């Protein structure tokens, strides 16, 4: 397709959530802009966008239009009434915005499914990007069933679909009967795996020093911790472990805390024959259970393990991640068929990952190749203890981690987000833009 044709195409990207905390949809937007599409990005107010979009949104010649709003909320109302009014408010916002736009394609994030998937009934140009199955987010049986049939019904009107795993594509085509092979207007289902964005990389010495100086001056981390993180050469240097969490029930942060307590106890029992490094754990993220776990952390009395909860800017997070020795993912998935983007971020920084086990994690984390998969507190503790041990013979920690980094560079970083997106996603978006009537 020529650039002149693409220049006339306008794609609307919609996230019914804080768009600043939806990296995949921001990456879609970035790739569309780099392919000369005009893009309107719609989502909730909140955190800053990734630096590339921040820069694009601030120029008059930009092809990016960002529309952010705060959804209706009235905690004083009965729960069901408040929810109904919120849904009506969202529909009003969406249709009011779309009514005033001329576009060729709408790309929506799912979940949340309600009311977003209903757009596919009114606009024949909707592509659904499946991050997970929306109905699995609900516990109550009746609500779960209602949402299941809602999602099943409206998704069939989508012109196309992206999934993050092969397992999700298989599930959608067999359970929801979507995909061009199933007839109707179900559209094509394309596996668009998450890949690390280009700005994730190992942090250079200069970047490391600048970041640590900034975190120290802004009191994001204690000065003592910053001093320890500056030590990158001694045999007893501390091991830096990063875990990114949304502090939701989907991620059992208690597993990590329990393991760290056990680790601290083991490190306190060090003998003259075996020595261990100290452990610095930095947890990034926001969510409803953050304060709950903050209270638990403050009550701990640990001697060899530090735990720090921080929230970093979109530009500082990759730099901190690029300093890490090991990453930890506590994501378990409500559906069991999605994969956590945070692991790809870690791989982008060449950081081996310890992940909690669930059905599809093997599509991403391969034991002893790019990380480890653990099933319980004991396995996590054992894994961390082995990494903390200062080896006097055999392979030391740095040797093991460097071998895994080499595997990550070879097997994962051979293809970054933009290259993968151009191969997998662009053809479907081009097709939808050509076939659908411009609104």
What does this structure look like?
With 439 residues, this protein is an alpha/beta fold. Helices cover 41% and strands 16% of the residues. The strands form two sheets. Strands 3-2-1-4-5-6-7 form a seven-stranded parallel β-sheet, with helices on both faces. A six-stranded parallel β-sheet has the order 10-9-8-11-12-13, with helices on both faces. Strand 6, helix 7 and strand 7 form a beta-alpha-beta unit. The longest helix has 21 residues, at 79-99. It is globular, with a radius of gyration of 23 Å. The protein starts with a helix and ends with a helix.
Keywords:
single chain; 439 residues; 16% strand; alpha/beta; 13 strands
Strand content: 15-25%
What is Rg?
Answer: 23 Å
The rounded distance between the terminal residues' Cα atoms is: 21 Å
Going across the major beta sheet, what is the strand order?
3-2-1-4-5-6-7
- Sketch the major β-sheet: 7 strands, parallel
Secondary-structure element order, as H and E?
A: HEHEHEHEHEHEHEHHEHEHEHEHEEHHHH
Number of helices: 17
Helices and strands: which structural class? Answer: alpha/beta
Question: What is the general shape?
Answer: globular
Q: What's the rounded overall pLDDT mean?
A: 89
Please estimate the helix content. 40-55%
């Amino acid at each position: 397709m020529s650039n002149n044709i693409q220049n006339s195409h306008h794609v609307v990207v919609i996230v019914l959530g804080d768009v600043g905390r939806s990296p995949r949809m921001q990456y879609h937007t970035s790739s569309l802009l780099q392919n000369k599409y005009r893009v309107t990005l719609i989502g909730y107010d909140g955190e800053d966008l990734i630096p590339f979009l921040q820069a694009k949104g601030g120029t008059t010649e930009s092809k990016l239009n960002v529309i952010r709003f705060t959804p209706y909320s009235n905690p004083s109302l009965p729960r069901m009434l408040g929810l109904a009014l919120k849904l009506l408010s969202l529909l009003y916002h969406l249709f009011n915005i779309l009514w005033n736009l001329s576009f060729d394609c709408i790309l929506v994030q799912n979940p949340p499914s309600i009311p977003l998937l209903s757009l596919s009934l009114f606009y024949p140009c909707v592509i659904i990007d499946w991050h997970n199955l929306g109905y699995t987010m609900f516990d109550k049986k009746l609500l779960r069933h209602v949402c299941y049939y809602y999602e099943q019904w409206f998704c069939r009107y989508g012109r196309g679909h992206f999934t993050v795993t092969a397992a999700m594509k298989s599930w959608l085509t067999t359970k929801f009967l979507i995909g061009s092979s199933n007839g109707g207007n179900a559209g094509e289902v394309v596996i668009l795996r998450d890949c690390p964005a280009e700005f994730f990389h190992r942090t250079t010495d200069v970047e490391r020093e600048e970041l640590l100086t900034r975190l120290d001056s802004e009191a994001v981390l204690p000065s003592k911790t910053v001093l320890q993180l500056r030590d990158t050469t001694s045999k007893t240097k501390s091991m830096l472990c990063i875990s990114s969490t949304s502090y939701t029930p989907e991620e059992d942060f208690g597993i990590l805390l329990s393991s760290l307590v056990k680790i601290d106890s083991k490190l306190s029992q060090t003998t003259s024959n075996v020595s261990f490094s100290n452990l610095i754990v930095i947890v990034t993220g926001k969510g409803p259970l953050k304060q709950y776990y903050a209270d638990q952390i403050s009550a701990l009395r640990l001697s060899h393990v530090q735990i720090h909860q921080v929230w970093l800017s979109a530009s500082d997070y990759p730099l901190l991640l690029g300093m890490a020795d090991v990453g930890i993912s506590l994501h378990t998935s409500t559906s069991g068929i999605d994969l956590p983007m945070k692991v790809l971020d870690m791989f982008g920084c060449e950081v081996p990952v310890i992940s909690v086990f669930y059905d599809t994690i093997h599509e991403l984390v391969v034991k002893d190749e790019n990380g480890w998969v653990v099933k319980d507190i004991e396995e996590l503790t054992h894994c961390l203890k082995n990494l903390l041990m200062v080896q006097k013979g055999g392979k030391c920690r740095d040797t093991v981690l460097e071998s895994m980094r080499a595997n990550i560079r070879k097997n994962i970083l051979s293809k970054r987000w933009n290259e993968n997106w151009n191969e997998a996603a662009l053809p479907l978006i081009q097709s939808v833009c050509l076939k659908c009537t411009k609104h």
